[in-house]
Amino acid sequence: MNCRSFVAQKGKASDSMASISPVGLLSPNNYSHRIWEDPSFIKWRKRDAHVPLHSHDTVEGSLRYWYERSKVDFLNANLALWHDDAVFGALESAAFWVKGLPFVKSLSGHWKFFLATSPESVPVNFYDITFDDSDWLDCSGPTKAIGRRILLHFEAVDSAFFVWVNGVLIGYSQDSRLPAEFEITDHCYPFDLDKDNVLSVQVMRWSDGSYLEDQDHWWLSGIHRDVLLLSKPEGYRSSSVCQHPCTAYIPLVVNTMVHNQVFITDYFFKSTLDQNFLTADLQVEVKLDLWQNCENVSLSNITMEATLYDNSGWSTSGKDNDEMDLSSYDVLHLNLRPPPTGSLGSHFYLLEGKLEKPRLWSSEHIFKPEHHAMRVSGLSMVSAQLLCILAATYLFNENSSGNILDCESCQVGIRQISQAPKQLLVNGQPVVIRGVNRHEHHPRTGKATLEACMIKVKYAFLPDYNSISFFKDLVVMKQNNINAVRNSHYPQHPRWYELCDLFGVYMIDEANIETHGFDLSSTFKHPTQESRWASSMLDRVIGMVERDKNHACIISWSLGNESGYGPNHCAMAGWIREKDSSRLLHYEGGGSRTSSTDIICPMYMRVWDILKIAKDPNESRPLILCEYSHAMGNSNGNIHKYWEAINGTFGLQGGFIWDWVDQVPAVVIPYWFDKKLGLLKVDVDGCKHWAYGGDFGDSPNDLNFCLNGIVWPDRTPHPAMHEVKYLYQPIKIVLAETKVEITNAQYFNTTQEIEFSWHLHGDGCNLGCGTLNLPVIQAQESYGIEQESAPWYSVWKACSAREVFLTIIGKLRHSTRWAKDCHVLASTQLILSAKDDSIPHVVRLISDSNLISKNVGNIIAIEKQNSWQIKLNTQTGTIESWKVGECSLINQGLLPCLWRAPTDNDKGGAPNSYLCKWKAALLDRLTFHTDECSVKELTSNMVHVKTVFIGVPKDQEILLKSKSSNQESEPIHIQCKVEVNYYIHSTGDVIVDYMVNPKNDLPPLPRVGVVFHLEKSLDHVSWYGKGPFECYPDRKEAAHVGIYESSVQDLHVPYIFPVESSGRTDVRWVAFQNSSGVGLYASAYGTSPPMQMSASFYGTAELERATHNHYLVEKDYVEVHLDHKHMGIGGDDSWSPCVHDEYLVPPVPYSFSIRLSPIIPPTTDEERLLSCASDSAGDELAVLAFG
């Protein structure tokens, strides 16, 4: 059978169509009524929405199917592919999605593909069986299948499509993120005709549905999820076999004489717990499909059975695949209620049961979340012995002797979602939502997730690499304490829900509705206000609920995103509440507080505003931020402020970070698609890289606005992920007066599976560590450790360190589905009070050391014989060079610096943005020039040089020259004055005192500090401060103070769009050394606070110039910034100035001091002894100085 598809880019189609009148009216070339542009026409011959069907042949087969699909853990995530081989791997493994399902076959494979650039270029009669498609592109293929009634199932097609079988128009559908299913049995050729069947699909890139799909993501049209053939029972027929689509023969039964035409088409599992959560009343509502002459079908002799199996025991049994008796894990057989009488059009069966002491599903099950596998099928009432066959529901006809007619199954979990005043409750507990928003995106395959049957390779099944990307997402989420996901902003691949059930992740399932483009329109009425859009909007909600209703992970349904508010939303809310009262309703539109939402769910609301709502006595609903902390580039500042409010305020229950992954298509190939490379952006030099809006010549575009994840496209975490993990950690540790208090913030688990340890550091050195033996802490309870009885107390009191830090770590005792044993679940660093008051940094002078000073023109040369030399230029006021022996350290001296490469958040707010204000104040063009420079003191032990810098815009440099030559000139705009005093000691120490005086009418400053260039060979960095990862003043809660090491290259953070990056905060000292150990040491001095430090081969100007990380040009020096103050990076959103006041740098006078010293490796025993004896002014790095 041949499969053909094409995309009509302008939403128009081919010229020929079947001649039947109703079909003719639906023709894509019927320009008098373009149905794909009619909001009231959304589908034709499309079957009603339902749960995913599996068409099992036996009970054992269904159990085996779920057994294989449940064998997933963190090891699978390590197989994830993100490069060219991901496309090949996904296509190769597509057929394995249906492994173990003999009546389901995948067509995700060898299609013939054509991209029509305009309606006129669509091939005429392309769907005809005689059409020559030999010059169309191949995109790969299916296997064989045998079936009965034939259902053609598209998991998702963007944005609308027509489908033909053997030249006959079968149907039409919209909604790019939900299935469309068609009955095609009568349109297939019988096998004995020896004719190929032809399946043809015409995809509209745009349709009226596109107006409801205005999400901020990559709009990639086409068939982006699996295409399946399902066969369902027809009863007893004479069986002839047909062949089915796709350049491969797919035999499917097409019978002639029907006795019973019934199969299971839908079912709804419901559980209700008693008030003590000890007994669960279970109900399964089963819907039958009656085909054609349903009046001839007798239902009186058909009964149903449902059985629950505990599949959590499968993975812990320790038995081999072939040894497992899966049926022995049954826990409950549900009882059939009498069939309904006088049913009108719909045929339902109800099965009920009661389960005592059920294990309740939640996100916290430390091993494998408790889950049950449920089977629905039919069983004859006439033969009692058949009740012993398997604890599953069977469907029989009256003439059979016990053969299975149909069998369906799904995963379910027993849990209860409810609401109390200002609380969302899961199993009676007000769980906190520590969530992220997640778009469906793969850097190589885009929106396509070709789902295979993902199981371990040792069981002889090929892995589906896009499925593995799901595993990778969930493993990384769970390892970073993320317990919830919002499907933004559409229903996602069915496998995603199965995995969230298994891994234990709360979910908001969201309808594929977003219309924020209408917000800017004064011409068109908003869809939610128009009745002609009502059916389309309601259909999307119905399709989502009907498909996903059996998943335990879903705690709330969402009506969509950013779609205003109106009567159509009221209709959608009413339908869901009547259909499924077991979950809450979520919708942000209309101000997040309408009657159509059970949760107050604002986006990007400021901390002070969410506090007002939480304290409003007239508001009884919980507040959960549907989007917050916009993670665009170097972002997520201030996020700890949200969690201070959430953890301390009743009525605030968490939120979902925006968002999970940087969305980049790594792909663009001439003619749309190549099966080997997928969607790869390749530069003219052959370099492959991650791209963003505009890189493909696409216009209009949002540039890098889809780069707002906390992980890169390959799921490598951004540095901000550390902050998220810390703030989301389920163990809270604080220092409360004389106690260290450890709180178990979980709601269901004790700390029995967590191993605690303590670590003590003084001035960066390890003082001691050990296991922390604690009693088991119950959920939501605390345990206090008195300091004087703590195991670290004696070590702390005996040490002479100036500052001492205590770190408490909680690790998993055993491996889980998502992490290996010893995985760090929580880690908190506490600063203990110093034994004595801290003393300021001072330099101990060595009196017998003499300096040699020379003045040659504008150069003051200061040296210590055979050790080091410093040259200071009195014209520029900077250190021009600094050498240790023959090794050069600095090749451009210390200059004041107020500028940084703008972040995405700096740009947010148009004319009110920080960047616009900085540019208006000319800070982006600020250069510093010497106003005066003179030697103030010159002795044998110390040289004092004073310099005064003035900061002026670049284009006024010529005015400075005019002033220096006493020529008349325009007024000079001095934005900043900086007085610098250098104290060069014979010890080799250089103390630099700064007094910075910016104009008081400037906007908040990017930074206040110094910049200098080191020799490129000094690329090994050690520092004592926060780390080891990138951190900034408003994003440093997770970073621990310690001594860390890195190369300059590894300090670089490769944000796809280059911005200010690579900073480390609260740095006490930093050292830069070459491979021989020679280098430069810098520290905060005197009473100056710790510094913000960064070092990079890419200077500020280069970070600002380059538009992509791979365009950065490495310099032949290391640019170092040591900042006394550095503005926060913000992150409340990325379109308004949002750095909190305490992290701004106001234009006021600042004074600070820095100590610089040469690092000279010891070469003699005497020098080594001196090195060990040196107190280095209280610093941990010994800096040698010899007389």
Automatic annotation (TrEMBL):
Keywords: Glycosidase, Hydrolase. GO terms for biological process: lactose catabolic process. The keyword Hydrolase applies. InterPro entries: B-gal_small/dom_5 (IPR004199), Bact_Beta-galactosidase (IPR050347), Beta-gal/glucu_dom_sf (IPR036156), Gal_mutarotase_sf_dom (IPR011013), Galactose-bd-like_sf (IPR008979), GH (IPR017853), GH-type_carb-bd (IPR014718), Glyco_hydro_2 (IPR006101). It catalyses: Hydrolysis of terminal non-reducing beta-D-galactose residues in beta-D-galactosides. One of its GO terms (molecular function) is beta-galactosidase activity. Its EC number is 3.2.1.23. GO terms for cellular component: beta-galactosidase complex. Residues 861-1157 form the Beta galactosidase small chain/ domain. It holds the Pfam family Glyco_hydro_2_N. PROSITE patterns: GLYCOSYL_HYDROL_F2_1 (PS00719), GLYCOSYL_HYDROL_F2_2 (PS00608). Belongs to the glycosyl hydrolase 2 family. This is beta-galactosidase. It comes from Zingiber officinale (Ginger).
